Every structure is written in structure tokens, then in C-alpha cells.
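Sample intake sheet
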Amino acid sequence: MKAYRITLEDRTFHVKVLDDPRQDEVRVEVDGEVFTVGVEPVVEEVAPVVTEAAPAPVPSAPAAPTPAPEAASEKTVTAPLPGIIKSIVVRPGQQVKFNDELLVIEAMKMDNVIRAPRDGTIGTILVTEGRQVAYGEPLLEFAD
């Protein structure tokens, strides 16, 4: 589950995306109230769009390609799919190389190995074994 603090016309809303945002419709919780909203891809990126919200400004020049969710932050590895953390292979302070196994997410009775997107040192592990994670949820952070 992803959570956001959104400010619109000087009003702040606490928004949680409850479902996988790759679906056509998802449930979102806004200040404790649950809504079902439509979702549309935006400039090669799958992002939740609240249909009642003001439209996004149209860029005057073509936008640069948006990185995949795992590359959203160089320091953070996020869940590429919803599932249950089956095993965590690394520990804080451990050195890893590009493509080393970090953890395993079980989804639909299949084990999905999450690998290091770069060389580095593991900083904080944000999940525990047996925990349910949502698409895009942070799993761990690199220290460097």
C-alpha cells in the first residue's frame, strides 16, 4: 500500500492506494473514507488518477521517459508486484553487487526473486518475512 499527502487548493488530504494501481479501477482511502477511482496511464507511467481531480498540465515539449518503479529512487528498492515476503537474503551492512538476490516475494504461488538494481551496501530493510506488500511499496534502502 502506498500512502501520500496531497495538497489541493490549500487543503491537505491523506491518501492511501489500497489496490494494485495497474488495474483500471482501484480503491483509495482519502482521510479515512474509501473511494473507487479510475486509473489511466500517464506518459508511459502507470499512476493512479482520481477522476474528480483537476487535470495535469500538458507539457509543451515531449517528456523524457519515466524510470521503472524500482528506479524511482537510487537508494530504495520497491515491490514490482503485490505478494508476501517469503525470504530476505540480505542483512543491513551487507555489500551486494548488481543482480545479487535480495529477497523473495511469493505471488500467486510463485516465487519472485528481487535482485539488486546496482552495487552497494544494504542500509535499512523495511519489510519482514511473512508480511504482505503492495505494488510499489518500499522493501529496502541502500546505505550509499
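Comment: Confidence is low (pLDDT under 50) at residues 65-72. The chain has two domains: 2-48, 69-142.
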